[in-house]
Amino acid sequence: MSGQPIIQAFFDEPTNTISYLVADRSTKHAAVIDPVLDYDHNAGEVDTRSVEAILRMAEDAGYTIVWTLETHAHADHLSGSPYIKAKTGAKIGIGEHIKEVQRIFRPVFNAADLKTDGSDFDHLFKDGERVNIGELEAEAIYTPGHTPADITYKVEDAAFVGDTLFMPDYGTARADFPGGDAHQLYRSIRRLMTLPPETRLFICHDYKAPGRDHYAWETTVAEEREKNVHVKDGVTEEDFVAMRTARDAKLSAPRLLLPSIQVNIRAGRFPPAEANGVRYLTIPVKLRGGAEACV
Ligand SMILES: [Fe+2]
């Protein structure tokens, strides 16, 4: 037993994302999970304040960051992993099924530069694969459904579940992105619910549930099983899928969906510069109804 990880959370209010710094107290090796790049969509400007805050915290504590881990290709923020890698040499890891996500989105963005073999990432995790963070043991658990490629990273008694579960009073994430599947999401959640009840769960987003005046991101398997408003014990797959499908039908596209996906499937890199030296993000446009005349 190598003890419990030291966990620090970083909340990014513009995208409601929680990033984590997870460290082994004996070797001071550490991993960053789901770092966020500061992206101002209106201005087309990108900054690194949020990742710098994580790096500063790590430096002050004397940590060596060995991994920067993505739970999935996020649709609501741009990944800060390339910056972590550039500054520390940490390896960028994601689930091996990211290849499917790359295959889905390459044609959407006409991303000729994008390889669809996952090789933009340094490591592709398989289900059940284990790696060390110092003396801590991290295990990748394949938890698809929200997207086809989600991974939960279990580090000793803590599991970083990405968007596979939200806080018990908020429920679950949507499952209607391309390749998402509410049935798969239900089964992934049930799988997480077989972890020991005291397992600490750290979620990737929080939006404050109705009646809660503060953000929250840590819960346990026991609490989720007892209280999750969408998927507590006793909710059947059929009921969950009916609820999730009805809710998803009413949700609009996330504000940063298009910018996020095209960067995150490139392991956080921006598309190549065009002939004028400028990098552009692409917005594929669907012409509906009368707009078809606007060409
Ligand atoms: Fe997500």
Detailed description of the structure:
With 295 residues, the chain is α/β, with parallel strands linked by helices. The chain has seven helices and 15 strands. The strands form three sheets. Strands 1-2-3-6-8-9 form a six-stranded mixed beta sheet, covered by helices on one side. Strands 10-11-12-13-14-15 form a six-stranded mixed beta sheet. α4 (182-192) packs across α6. The site of fe (ii) ion (FE2) has 5 residues, from loops.
N-to-C series of helices and strands: EEEEEHEEHEHEEEEEHEEHHH
- Specify the helix fraction band: 10-25%
The general outline is globular
Helical segment count: 7
Structural class: alpha/beta
Question: Rg from C-alpha positions?
Answer: 19 Å
Q: What hetero molecules are bound to the protein chains?
A: fe (ii) ion
Residue-averaged pLDDT: 97
Low-confidence stretches: none
Main sheet strand line-up: 1-2-3-6-8-9
Strand content: 15-25%
Largest sheet geometry: 6 strands, mixed
First and last CA, distance: 64 Å
Count every beta strand, where a strand is a DSSP E run of 2 or more residues.
15
Question: Which key terms come to mind for this protein?
Answer:
binds fe (ii) ion; single chain; alpha/beta; 295 residues; 15 strands; six-stranded mixed β-sheet; 7 helices
